[in-house]
Design brief:
1100 residues, sialic acid, 60% helix, single chain, transmembrane, elongated
């Protein structure tokens, strides 16, 4: 203990006998039973005045030079002290010199000389040996001290916390109070710090010159210089190491009673009365009370500065805090926090090292006493409350504090200001501080956060126990919700920025995943780091293993995966909470997304510009997007926006903890439900658009088709290109009636889902959207993209489209007619009718089925109208009627192969093939289409030619399709484009009030044709008459589809009588044959009955 400088407590013993000096000290001779000395009644609330009257200075000096009486001399009898004694000290203390000394501390030079004489005479030690005889024997260190040099009492002062003997305890307490009144009375202190006192200009050290610095100010000056030195990079006047140790040792010895820190005592006298009047001195209680009120408005600046200096000393050496050192003494030894011989003593004693070591033990589940954890909590809160207690932050962040955060030092606001702007070196210092304070374990440690979020915690997180680590997680879950307040939002994000950069700062994550991290990521202890696996890389390692399949190797435990998903959900709220994303994408964020500052917009912006990002950023954004495709709940903002839809339509999928893209698929399928709001719709559509950039961004598609993509579509990355590649392969295999499909069954199923999703929004098909952008802005500026409304608008405006757009729309219609499931509008509008009429129909024959049931009384009017539109579309070009095209497929390559050979796949063949068919059909079908071939192309003219010449068509399949067209046109004039064009004016004049459908408008025109009073347009009249003839022909040759149709055909046939006669004749013949057969069987039966029985043998 002598290495740190002890108080050389030597009392003057002028007389030989102890009895005499005992009377001077107010103690009785030890010849009889020891009695406790008369303790001073001076209360902590009654400090003496700071300065004595100047007039008493001479008297004090004279009193000091007068010879002292050997026995019975009392300080109260000195003339220089009498006035102050009467004014300041209780009367019952006047007879006790030590009580008077304590009462009149630092009042007069007479008192100072008296104390100096006490501490320079080695005979004083004999009193301590008598008073503390049993205590010395118990304390080994003190019993071994060399006698006669004054070190015995110094040792007793060091161990005063272990003294149980009442008389000795009182005696040492009085001596401690006297010694700490002046730095020159402390053993060895002046020798070790003499040079530093002069260099720092902390006051005079000449014994003859006594000023205000002699009463604690010198030590305070050195303490400030010590803490200031730690906050400066260039140490102009460094304090010697032995003096540093002496300063910290003095602070440590004064840690239990704030009276012993003279500078703080005088600075905080009034504040102690104001805030801590009922706090008993001793065991550091007054210090802690004052610390807790440090930032109160009523706290004086002088006291606040003194308290800050004391706290800074504690941060340099935890032993300066009596309560912390006492409470955690055994735990430090148990957790081996003081046995690292590789660390210098200065670092080992730092508060941050102590906290990190003990926090590591707590996080590992090792026992740490509740008393120690309580002290740790107080000092962790203290570090977060005042940034100046961390010298690294003061050193690295001085410029930022002055420029951005000045005046915010109270209640942790400066620290949060630094968190907000934290980058580079200061970020490292902040990260170290936050790891030491560990606010993730208890939000109350961060006072600024606690005060800002109090209302949110009381409402949104009231079900969670106060101080539970889940409070922070609860606050994150309510980020950007109505319950969150702005100030809390800012403080929370500022703290989470640093917690997200070290996985260990989330105590729940660390608890659940420490085993997995050690097994899979080769991590070390809580407060240990590795260059190969820094803290920021550990979480990346964990989430890579979190989404592995069993075939891919080792996976996380279930509990750890749940926590990893929770962190991913939180990080998705703000790009700043994803360290890797922010690090690699800082340049791209500034380049592409500087204006996207709203919640969630930055990540969306990066996804939109994925092709433009630098390689490192593109990889990070791609990996995150791929992860979202598997677990869309990572996008917490989207999930919140879609909550109504999820609850109404997708709750079963959402409740499944193992999400494999099902939830997003459900949201897409229900994108147009009434519960869908604009935010959710925009978010889902955006994610669909992002998925188009890379097929890996669609988890289910990737898992179902990755092998097919590698085999059939190598080197293709964009999802839309992959879908086209695979769907083309499927289509070719189907058309060619291949024995075995090259695309696997599971991929074909998922491919169908992707095709259906793409058909809903033109933006999901870049090959269609890009050529039609100008047409969209020109022809459909106010039409929504969703629900295939934009595609429908372009179809209706097809004749006005640009050439490229027209080609793409025609190709789209061709695909939709071949596969009606891809016709989003048709499937949406007729969804219920398909369930009613076409449940057993093949998916590719849905439109054909709907057409057959179009005139049913149960048909929905909207669906019927949509079917009519599709019929009109089919009749504008033979290729849009796949059934007709298939029936006549032999003629197209036979007569028009030269056109097909010259054609480009991207160019539209409309017109050329039709013209070819006109010419060839004219030649081959007995000049059926000569007029049409000679005329310019008109919409539906080939079909018109075939209808007119129905009876002359030889191919049965082709004839059947033409009959179907005639049957359909009879039901609605809109299906017959030639007739509709010819009769457009007459419809407007005579049938405007007639509702389309069920042949009503056609009946109206027929009635007008028969009414001689009505004059129709010549072309309309001619076409109507042609239709009557066509229907008559069709009735003659069309095959009967049922018994009723057969009966009608028989009754309307010219050979009706002949047919009926033949039927009657056939019935008669059958009757006669039956009658004859009956007669024969009857005679055979009679003969069998009349036959005599056979003779039997005699049994005998």
């Amino acid at each position: 203990m002598a290495a740190y400088g002890r108080p050389q407590l030597l009392l003057l013993l002028p007389c030989v006998c102890l009895c005499g000096f005992g009377s001077v000290l107010g103690l009785k001779a030890p010849s009889g039973p020891a009695e406790p000395p008369n303790p001073p009644v001076l209360r902590a609330a009654d400090p003496p005045v700071k300065d004595a009257p100047a007039a008493a200075a001479a008297a004090a000096a004279a009193g000091a030079s007068q010879p002292r009486r050997a026995t019975g001399w009392k300080l109260s009898e000195e003339e220089a002290c009498r006035e102050d004694l009467t004014r300041l000290c209780p009367k019952h203390t006047w007879t006790n010199n030590l009580a008077v000394l304590e009462c009149l501390q630092d009042r007069r030079e007479l008192l100072w000389n008296y104390k100096l004489n006490l501490t320079t005479d080695p005979k004083f030690e004999s009193v301590a040996m008598e008073v503390c005889k049993s205590t010395i024997a118990e304390i080994k260190e003190c019993n071994e001290e060399e006698r006669g040099r004054g070190y015995l009492v110094s040792c007793l002062v060091d161990h005063r916390g272990n003294i149980s003997e009442y008389q000795c305890n009182q005696y040492i307490t009085k001596m401690t109070s006297i010694i700490f009144s002046d730095y020159r009375l402390i053993c060895g202190f002046m020798d070790k710090c003499k040079e530093d006192i002069n260099n720092m200009r902390c006051g005079s050290i000449n014994v003859g010159h006594k000023d205000v610095h002699s009463q604690g100010e010198v030590i305070a000056c050195l303490e400030k210089a010590l803490v200031r030195e730690a906050e400066q990079q260039d140490h102009v006047r460094p304090i010697k190491e032995e003096c540093q140790k002496a300063i910290l040792r003095v602070a440590e010895l004064s840690s239990d009673d704030f009276h012993l820190d003279r500078h703080l005592y005088f600075s905080c006298r009034d504040d102690r009365e104001r805030f801590c009047q009922n706090t008993q001195a001793g065991e550091g209680k007054v210090y802690k009370c004052l610390f807790n009120h440090k930032f109160e408005e009523a706290m004086s600046e002088k006291c606040r500065d003194a308290l800050t200096t004391r706290q800074k000393l504690i941060s340099q050496d935890y032993k300066v805090s009596y309560s912390l050192a006492k409470a955690c003494k055994l735990d430090l030894r148990k957790q081996r926090c003081s046995l690292d011989t590789n660390l210098p003593r200065a670092r080992e004693a730092r508060l941050s090292y102590l906290l990190l070591c003990l926090e590591a033990a707590v996080h590992r589940g090792r026992p740490v006493s509740g008393e120690c954890q309580g002290e740790m909590l107080d000092y962790r809160r203290m570090l977060m409350e005042d940034f100046s207690l961390s010298p690294e932050i003061v050193l690295h962040c001085r410029t930022e504090i002055e420029a951005h955060c000045s005046g915010l030092h109270r209640k942790g606001r400066t620290l949060h200001c630094l968190m907000r702007i934290g980058r580079g070196d200061r970020s490292t210092a902040l990260q170290t501080l936050i790891q030491s304070a560990d606010p993730g374990a208890d939000y109350r440690i961060d006072r600024a956060l606690n005060e800002a979020c109090e209302s949110v915690i009381q409402t949104a997180c009231k079900h969670i126990r106060t101080g539970d680590p889940m409070i922070l997680s609860c606050l994150m879950e309510h980020l950007y919700t109505e319950k969150m307040v702005e100030d809390c939002e800012h403080r929370l994000l500022e703290l989470q920025y640093f917690i997200s950069r070290d996985w260990k700062l989330d105590p729940i994550l660390y608890k659940k995943c420490q085993g997995d991290a050690a097994r899979l990521c080769h991590t070390h202890g809580w407060n240990e780091t590795s260059e190969l696996m820094p803290p920021g890389a550990v979480f990346s390692c964990l989430y890579r293993h979190a989404y592995r399949t069993e075939e891919q190797g080792r996976r996380l435990s279930r509990d750890c995966k749940v926590e990893v998903q929770r962190i991913l959900h939180q990080r998705a709220l703000d790009v700043k909470l994803d360290p890797e994303l922010q690090k690699r994408c800082m340049t791209d964020l500034g380049k592409w997304c500087s204006e996207k500052t709203d919640t969630g917009q930055e990540l969306e912006c990066l996804q939109d510009h994925l092709e433009d990002l630098v390689s490192a950023c593109r990889d990070v954004v791609g990996n995150l997007t791929e992860l979202e495709s598997e677990d869309i709940q990572i996008d917490a903002l989207l999930i919140r926006a879609c909550e109504p839809v999820i609850q109404a339509h997708c709750h079963d999928v959402a409740d499944n903890q193992i999400d494999t893209g099902d939830l997003m698929e459900c949201l897409v399928q229900n994108k147009h439900q009434k519960e869908m709001n604009d935010k959710c719709s925009v978010g889902v559509t955006h994610f669909q658009l992002v998925q188009m950039k890379d097929f890996r961004f669609s988890y289910k598609f990737k898992m179902s088709c990755k092998e097919d993509v590698l085999r059939l579509c190598p080197n293709i990355k964009k999802k839309v290109d992959v879908v086209i590649c695979l769907s083309t392969t499927v289509r070719n295999d189907t058309l060619q009636d291949a024995r075995e499909q090259r695309v696997s069954l599971k991929c074909r199923k998922q491919l169908r889902v992707e095709e259906l999703e793409m058909s809903e929004d033109i933006r999901l098909e870049p090959e269609l959207y890009d050529p039609c952008k100008s047409d969209i802005s020109r022809l459909c500026p106010n039409v929504n993209f969703g629900n295939a409304q934009m595609i429908e608008c372009l179809k209706e405006q097809k004749k006005q489209l640009s050439q490229r757009c027209h080609q793409r729309i025609f190709r789209l219609q061709e695909v939709e007619m071949t596969d009606p499931e891809l016709d989003y509008q048709l499937m949406r509008v007729c969804k219920q009718m398909i369930k009613r009429f076409c449940t057993e129909a093949d998916a590719r024959n849905v439109l054909q089925c709907l057409k057959q049931n179009k005139n049913s009384e149960l048909m929905d009017p909207k669906c019927k109208q949509m079917i009519t539109k599709r019929q009109i579309t089919q009749n504008t070009d033979y290729r849009l009627n796949p059934v007709l095209r298939k029936a006549c497929r032999a003629d197209i390559p036979k007569f028009c192969q030269s056109i097909l050979n010259k054609a480009n796949e991207d160019s539209e063949l409309e017109g050329q093939v039709i013209a070819c068919l006109k010419l060839k059909y004219a030649d081959q079908i007995s000049r059926l289409c000569v007029e049409e071939a000679a005329a310019q192309e008109q919409t539906g003219q080939v079909e018109e030619c075939l209808k007119v010449n129905l009876l002359k068509i030889k191919q049965e399949a082709c004839k059947k399709e033409v009959l179907n067209m005639l049957k359909e046109s009879k039901a609605d004039i809109f299906v017959d484009p030639v007739l509709h064009t010819a009769c457009a004016l007459d419809l407007k004049h005579h049938c405007a009030a007639i509702t389309p459908g069920r042949g009503r408008q056609m009946s109206c025109l027929m009635e007008a044709l028969q009414d001689k009073r009505v004059r129709l347009q010549p072309e309309c009249k001619k076409r109507l008459q042609d239709r009557i003839d066509m229907w008559s022909y069709a009735a003659k040759v069309a095959p009967a589809e049922g018994f009723s149709d057969l009966a009608v055909q028989v009754m309307t046939s010219p050979s009706k009588n002949y047919i009926l006669f033949m039927i009657a004749l056939s019935v008669c013949v059958l009757f006669l044959v039956g009658l004859l057969c009956g007669r024969i069987t009857k005679r055979v039966t009679r003969e069998l009955k009349d036959r005599p029985p056979l003779a039997t043998e005699n049994p005998h």
